[in-house]
Design goal:
globular, alpha/beta
Amino acid sequence: MAKVKSPVTAAIRVLRQAGVSFGEHPYQYEEKGGTAVSARELGVEEHCVIKTLIMEDESKAPLVVLMHGDRQVSTKELARAIGAKSVAPCTPDTANRHSGYMVGGTSPFGTRKQMPVYVEETILELPLIYINGGHRGFLVSMPPAELVRVLKPVIVKVGI
């Protein structure tokens, strides 16, 4: 079986430029499969697969939220944590426009627009995380400390 060639995306360029040592994990993407499919395909716990969510506050200002694949974001808690009146997920078209990535392939690294990044605090307790590398069917693995070093996210407790 031929080795699948990993894509070179904006996210990969950012990680290389920052000197991050990361693993590349291509897998067979399934439409609307989410983190359950990537976890299954890679043989890892879904809790270690981190989803990148593009949301916006009441003034339509975009933001990035990083959450465990098997958990949801409490938008009420997030709004409270960031001092907003409300926070809601963007439509797929809006998320694509803000991030520069297609939904299902959104990475927090190398986004088109600079956006504040919020990370669920319990993600930082994991020894290794799997996060989108900027292409559908492609995750990268790294210690969460590298994510913090590169993105400088605000740590929040908003998972449910």
